[in-house]
Design a protein that fits this description.
With 89 residues, the protein is mainly α. The chain has helices at 28-31, 53-63, 74-87; strands spanning 9-11, 35-37. The chain has one domain. A two-stranded antiparallel ribbon has the order 1-2. The protein starts with 8 loop residues before the first strand and ends with a helix.
């Protein structure tokens, strides 16, 4: 059996979010998130445009220490700052 390294689960530390009405926490896919478990083979994120799929992937990347994009847009800069503020102890 081959060992498959993968992200098992993420959870939003809701007690560290100051305001669910600001980006990225106001996006439905993030605002309603408690935890999300990933299957070891494949996980699909499906939703309407604007529901937060890409934002969630960027937030996971930032939380793991990756840069979300080479060219950071205003939203990416806000995302990075807010995610880092929630993950720092």
């Amino acid at each position: 059996m081959q060992i498959k390294p993968y992200l098992k689960e993420i959870s939003l530390k809701r007690e560290r979010v100051e305001d669910f009405e600001v980006y990225p926490f106001c996006i439905p896919g993030v605002k309603n998130l408690k935890s999300l478990k990933f299957h070891p083979d494949v996980t699909f994120l499906v939703g309407e445009n604007g529901s937060g799929k890409s934002t969630l992937i960027e937030a996971i990347a930032v939380g793991l220490g990756f840069n979300p994009k080479e060219e950071q847009s205003n939203h990416s800069s806000q995302l990075t700052a807010r995610i880092q503020s929630c993950t720092n102890t």
